[in-house]
Amino acid sequence: MDIHNSPLIFLKLGGSLITDKHRPYTPRLDILRRIAEEIAAARLENPALRLILGHGAGSFGHVPAKRYGTRQGVRTPEEWLGFAEVWKEAATLNRLVVDALLEAKLPLISLPPCAAVTAEDGRVAVWELYPISAALQAGLVPLIFGDVIFDRRRGGTILSTEDLFEYLARQLRPQRILLAGIEEGVWRDFPLCTELVRQITPADIQQRRLQLGGSQAPDVTGGMESKVRQSLTLVQEIPGLEVLIFNGEPPGTIRRALGGEHLGTQICAA
Questions:
Q1: Which end of the chain is more exposed for a tag (fewer CB within 10 A), N or C?
Q2: Among 147, 174, 201, where does a domain finish?
Q3: Which residues, listed in sequence order, are joined to residue 52 by a DSSP beta bridge?
Q4: What is the spatial distance between Cα 129 and Cα 171, in angstroms, rounded to a whole number?
């Protein structure tokens, strides 16, 4: 198979998966190492696999980001100091992720968004994508992550991995986006979490079979809501795209998802 024409997959390692969100600046190194080995194994099984990795900030970047309100905007000297602190913590976690992936012999290159992306009011406005495309052409695995970004309107902001994946998906047209966290998927009865939604389509929302917040009916509120909304928008824009939201904690799940299995909740156009 020609690797340059093979399917492209985005995989996000959620901050809750690779760090302990209840303990500031605490990575889950054992989980990181195992995930790295599973990704390497999936690439050995399918050498033509083209993959872009991303990771969340977890208990690293979110701590100073919340303290300084960085996502909302950066203007004062104190807020710019906070901007630099968020950058430092995001880069620190990224280094740990890079180390684990390289130890697993993955041909990885980290491409920090803060140096390549310009935002406009909290959204990607400009992103020079040649380095990512060149890395894929060379058979490398590009790694991006939630990062501080200079913003034309807000001064500075933070863009999450999902924000970055949303922009990249429109440009690079992946076949699958895999969002690995510690939840089994999307729950119909959050926060009770007893009934998992196996598939979500735009018709489910339009016909009110599933609510996205703001209702007494069964809903999928909490941190999932924005993920589901972004995913529904993308699957309607990009033919053939599917998004999986699944639990990456159990051994083997990352490898199985990369191999094409449907785990957790699938979001698709129909």
A1: C
A2: 174
A3: 10
A4: 9
For residues 243-256, one letter each, b for 16 or more C-beta atoms within 10 angstroms of the residue's C-beta and e for the rest, the string is bbbbbbbeeebbbe
Residue whose tokens read 């339009």 = 206
Q: Which amino acid is at 132?
A: I
Domain boundary, last residue among 142, 174, 206: 174
Pinpoint the alpha helices (H) of the chain: 15-18, 29-45, 58-68, 77-103, 130-137, 161-172, 202-206, 224-237, 253-258
The SS3 assignment for 171 reads helix
166 and 193 in a single domain? The answer is no
Is residue 2 in a domain? no
pTM for the full model?
A: 0.93
Read off the pLDDT of residues 124-139 as tens digits, 9 standing for 90 and up: 999 999 999 999 999 9
* CA-derived radius of gyration, the chain: 18
**DSSP line for 49-113:** -EEEEEE--HHHHHHHHHHHTGGG---SHHHHHHHHHHHHHHHHHHHHHHHHHHHTT--EEE--G
Question: pLDDT by residue (tens digit) across 238-260?
Answer: 999 999 999 999 999 999 999 99
What's the number of domains the chain is made of?
2
189 and 115 both lie in a single domain: no
CB 184 within 8 A of CB 247: yes
- Name the maximum alpha-carbon separation found in the chain: 53
Same domain for 205 and 179: yes
